[in-house]
Deaminated glutathione amidase
Amino acid sequence: MLSFLVRAPHHLSLLWRGLRIPQRSVLCAQSRPRAMANSSSSWEMPLVAVCQVTSTPDKQQNFKACAELVREAARLGACLAFLPEAFDFIARDPAETLHLSEPLGGTLLGEYAQLARECGLWLSLGGFHERGHDWEQTQKIYNCHVLLDSEGSVVATYRKTHLCDVEIPGQGPMRESNSTMPGPRLELPVRTPAGRVGLAICYDMRFPELSLALAQAGAEILTYPSAFGSVTGPAHWEVLLRARAIETQCYVVAAAQCGRHHEKRASYGHSMVVDPWGTVVACCSEGPGLCLARIDLGYLRQLRQHLPVFQHRRPDLYGNLGRPL
């Protein structure tokens, strides 16, 4: 049973007063520059929930676990709940992945649409194994981030553009392209009750060009639903998420898979929310659960005003080197 971690100056402690947080979660409160006190009172700041699960090949059991966390998020007052990559299932091999996949109009997404309506909150479904329009021709799927509104309607879909084909010693090879097609484009940030959300998935976080493009297109929140491994997780997970937050001056929300999915695969966990200053403001540990964070868009705008890095960018220079690595 995890205890809560609270490290906050006095003026921030009111953010969390009266919230009942599940004991499986860890809450890390904000630490900001002294001159940047909260610009909004807590009841004006939207609350988001970040769900951490251990998906298996059992789709209905996975839905049951995710639905329990989403209902808890709604009970606690969240307006938007984030689920990780592969929230629907994690299969043992590419053949099982293809067999278990569904189209967007299939049964599983219908269940999540009903869940969103029942709970009255938005859902970020961070990585759905989608049989797309070209399934019959390619026999491959898309890793699709689906955003549902509180009526259960699909308001945005983003298909993962950077596929994870890597070999990390000690972690085992990953060949996402064996079963998955890369998405063709980025999607514009979407206005939600928590702010404008830019959609990405897991391995995308290693490409800062993507996060900068979303920020320049108006994103206030970047989300990286993920299933990080046991070697890259401790080394890179928090570092990359904090870097993406600092360089874009956005909130970063990262729902993660955790624990052992089956005999062939395990994930790192440590779902978190990072504020635009680069501070981890909410986090989970290793096991299933959720964490909560307030999104203070007034603070975000204040920070961008004091540190106007996007006004100082030199895009006329960045594409001119042209030398291969």
